[in-house]
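Example for tutorial group B:
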């Protein structure tokens, strides 16, 4: 759901030395978007990628360091190499399926299992999800017991954001205020990724359409809040919004979106990880 936000923050960070993407059925579109921003990600299956990243970030072994500790020039070279490795920023992106949102328990289970696997090669993990990805206390406790710190997307008040809509709007408080615009009328919030399934040839045959139709059959849903963001990578967004509103007979209301939560949370996470490693 937050693919565009992820592309945006990665494209603005000029300190990334190595960018890896876990290869799966969801990664192709992400990689294309990254390349459109002149980024060159390395794409590997998870089993290959984890070993590659571990090897690339591995410090020189203590036995090797001890062997040359009495030779000042060699010790200095080894220390410098280790410090360089510690300062190099490596980012690994593991994109999960968008349709996981249709079953919250399964979504949270997948978030945890993938975070657990990523923690083996990471100094810190930033989860690009709102509370929907880890709302249960058990999942939150399990995440905190992983081999590295886990960070969350937060708004300006440092509250963990509710969901992808809150992230797109700029925070939980703005989300609440936006709800009042409808004056009691039911509303759907449209972002480029939320409507991305409409890019498929036969939208009405997709699982996404079937799920949406179930609750949009109620006449209370009459508004479509179109969250506009100039950094969106989906050129079909405006067309998709118009088509969606036509299908479900909804009134479109334009709302300004932002990337602030994504970029601020990313930079705060990066700073915290670096501080923990005494960069």
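The residue assignment follows.
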């Amino acid at each position: 759901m937050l693919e565009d936000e992820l592309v945006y923050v990665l494209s603005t960070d000029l300190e990334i030395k190595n960018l890896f993407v876990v290869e799966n059925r969801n990664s192709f579109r992400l990689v294309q978007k990254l390349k459109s921003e002149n980024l060159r990600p390395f794409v590997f299956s998870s089993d290959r990628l984890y070993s590659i990243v571990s090897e690339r970030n591995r410090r020189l072994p203590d036995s090797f360091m001890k062997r040359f500790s009495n030779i000042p020039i060699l010790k200095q070279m080894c220390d410098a190499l280790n410090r360089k490795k510690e300062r190099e920023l490596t980012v690994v992106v593991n994109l999960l399926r968008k349709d996981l949102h249709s079953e919250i328990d399964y979504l949270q289970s997948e978030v945890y299992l993938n975070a657990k696997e990523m923690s083996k090669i990471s100094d810190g993990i930033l989860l690009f999800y709102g509370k929907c990805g880890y709302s249960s206390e058990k999942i939150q406790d399990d995440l905190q017991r992983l081999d590295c710190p886990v960070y969350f997307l937060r708004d300006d008040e440092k509250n963990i954001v509710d969901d992808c809509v809150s992230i797109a709007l700029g925070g939980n408080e703005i989300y609440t205020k936006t709800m009042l615009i409808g004056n009691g009328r039911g509303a759907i919030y449209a972002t480029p990724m939320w409507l991305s399934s409409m890019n498929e040839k036969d939208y009405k045959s997709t699982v996404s359409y079937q799920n949406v139709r179930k609750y949009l059959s109620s006449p209370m849903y009459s508004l479509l809040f179109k969250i506009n963001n100039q950094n969106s990578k989906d050129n079909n967004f405006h067309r998709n919004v118009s088509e969606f509103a036509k299908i479900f007979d909804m009134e479109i209301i334009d709302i300004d979106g932002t990337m602030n939560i994504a970029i601020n949370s990313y930079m705060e996470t990066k700073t915290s990880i670096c501080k923990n490693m005494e960069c």
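The two ends are 32 Å apart (CA to CA). Compare this with the pattern of hydrophobic and polar residues in the output above.
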